[in-house]
Design goal:
The chain has 204 residues and is an alpha+beta fold. Helices cover 52% and strands 6% of the residues. The chain folds into 2 domains: 2-77, Glutaredoxin; 88-193, Glutathione S-transferase Yfyf (Class Pi), Chain A, domain 2. The protein has helices spanning 10-21, 42-47, 67-77, 88-116, 125-143, 153-168, 179-188, 192-195; strands at residues 2-5, 29-32, 55-57, 63-64. A 4-stranded mixed beta sheet has the order 2-1-3-4. Helix 1 links the parallel strand 1 (2-5) and strand 2 (29-32). The two termini are 28 Å apart.
Length: 204
């Protein structure tokens, strides 16, 4: 399998953590690419018409996207119901948490593009503020969640979202008012799958 990859993408990291947990990492070749919303990658677009990462080219020649689909596919390859709970309340909780964390990542990535790609004279601060309102509100919800003793697609997604905030928005200091979430993030970061897939900003 081949995975279109960027070392700073929290969505790609979610896939990589899942693959590591399922023992599938060695079956996946990482294809490193650089792209922004205004600098598309043509090879990627030939596989994923949306031009977004992650995109996984399977051994059968099918391309899967985006991260929730890829992660569930990998779970199925490993036998199923390992990262995605099979049914009932646990499944819906995991999927809800994944959606919440993906929303944090979406808002944070869009804010990053606004600040790093859009010309300064065209930036819209009210739009940026509205994106980070989503992030802060979601973090407040997570502060009230009981995340301990659970490791599934929901908590994987949350861990990846929080680490992206640390990478790109250290000045946000989200931990200051969310001690439970901060302690959980520090503890789960030591898990081998997360330690092996740390996010990294490109050198350029």
């Amino acid at each position: 399998m081949k995975l279109y990859f960027s070392p700073a993408s929290p969505f790609v990291r979610k896939v990589r953590v899942t693959a590591h947990e399922l023992g599938l990492s060695e079956r996946i070749e990482l294809i490193s690419i650089t792209l922004t919303p205004v600098s598309p990658h043509e090879q990627l677009r030939s596989s994923n018409p949306l031009g977004k990462i992650p995109a996984l080219l399977t051994d059968e020649g099918t391309t899967l996207y985006d991260s929730p689909v890829i992660c569930e596919y990998l779970d199925s390859l490993a036998g199923g119901n390992l990262i995605f709970p099979a049914a009932g309340a646990a499944r819906w909780t995991a999927l809800r948490r994944q959606a919440l964390a993906d929303g944090i990542m979406d808002a944070a990535v869009l804010t990053r593009y606004e600040e790093a790609v859009r010309p300064r004279e065209l930036r819209w601060q009210r739009w940026v503020d509205s994106q980070f309102l989503k992030v802060r509100t979601a973090l407040d919800v997570l502060e009230r969640e009981s995340l301990q003793d659970t490791f599934d697609i929901g908590t994987i997604s949350i861990a990846c979202a929080l680490s992206y905030l640390d990478l790109r928005f250290a000045g946000e200091e989200w931990r200051m008012s969310r001690p439970k979430l901060s302690d959980w993030a520090a503890a789960i970061a030591t898990r081998p799958s997360l330690a092996a897939t740390l996010l990294a900003a490109p050198a350029s």
